[in-house]
Amino acid sequence: MNPWNELLANLAIVAITTSLWTFGHRHMAHFTPRSRSAAYGGIMACGTLGAMSLPFQFHSGVFLDLRYTLLAISGLFGGPVAAATPFVVAVGRRILSGGTGLSVALPLIFMATASGLIAHRFVRGIPDGRSICVVSLAVVFSGTAAFFVKVPFDQWSNVMPAVVAPFALLLFVSAMISSLAISQELKRQQATTLNRIYRAIIEALPDCLNAKDLDGRFIAVNPATAALMGAGTPSDLIGKTDFDFYPEKAARTFRADEEAVLREGKPVVIEQRFTRTNGVETWLATLKAPFHDDDGKMIGMITHNREITDRKLLERELAQTQRHLAGALASMADGLAMFDHRGAQVFNNARYLELFPLTADVRSTGACLRAIIRVAIERGEEMNGGGNCDDIIERSADAILRPGDRQMRLADGRWIEARTRATEEGGSLIVFSDVTKSKKTEEELRTLNKRLEVMAHTDGLTGLLNRRAFDNALEDLVYRNSQTSAGPSLLMIDVDKFKAYNDTYGHPVGDICLKSVATRVAEIMTSYPRSVVARYGGEEIAVIIPQCDSAAALSVARLLCTQVRSMEIEHVGSEKGRVTVSIGIATINSAGVRGTKALLRSADEALYTAKAAGRDCVRGRDQSDDVAVA
Question: 154, 353, 455, 465: which sits with the fewest CB atoms below 10 Å from its CB?
Answer without folding.
Answer: 154
